[in-house]
Amino acid sequence: MFDLSVTKLLVLAVIALVVFGPHELPKIAQQAGRALRDLRRIAEGAKADLREGLGPEFQDFDFEDLNPRRFVRKHLLDDMEDTTQALFDEFKDTSNAVMGGTSATTTAASVTMTGTQRTATLPDGEDPPFDIEAT
């Protein structure tokens, strides 16, 4: 979250030692720890109140899903993979129907699936499909 490495923490500790001095630093560290514990307690209480207010249908709600990166990955990219797979299946079915029920992978088009990337190559002389919405 803050990307603090060991060297950065040591630099911060040296700066704190110089600014506050060796006599005040333990007191300030204790106050900072206490404030952090209180903040965590308040946040957990707020989460519990929110879960209670949402009702039993949201008991398994994960607050990490509100993170924008996770939200986009979960709600948009997963749907995109499902849509891409559905379009690929539709292409395969359509090419089978056009070729009279023969296998599209052996006669009409060579289709390769590698992970989420799908490519299709047409044989020589065959026109690619026309998409009226592409222009």
TrEMBL record:
Example GO biological process: protein transport
Keywords: Membrane, Protein transport, Translocation, Transmembrane, Transmembrane helix, Transport
Origin superkingdom: Bacteria
UniProt cross-references to InterPro entries, sorted A to Z: TatA/B/E
GO cellular component: membrane
Subcellular location(s) per record: Membrane
Pfam families in the cross-refs: TatA_B_E
Topology versus the membrane: Single-pass membrane protein
Principal cellular location given in the protein's record: membrane
Matching PANTHER family: SEC-INDEPENDENT PROTEIN TRANSLOCASE PROTEIN TATA, CHLOROPLASTIC
Protein name: Sec-independent protein translocase subunit TatB
